[in-house]
User: Fold this.
Amino acid sequence: MPEFQFNSLAELLNMGGYAQYVWPVYVFFLLFCLFTVVPPAYSRRKIVKQIKARLRREENQ
Assistant:
């Protein structure tokens, strides 16, 4: 059976007294990841939609 660093969930969340420094870093990291992945995905969808609309217009002319 694997041994864990912390004996309880409360100890894990407390991070040995460093929770006030550790958890905000996790939050900022997740926000950074979201802001670097999500906007380009939406931009790509918008660009692909615009290109498809332009191609349809050109085909109908």
Summary: The mean pLDDT is 90. Residues 31 and 37 are 10 Å apart (CA to CA). The two ends are 70 Å apart (CA to CA). Residues 9-60 form one domain.
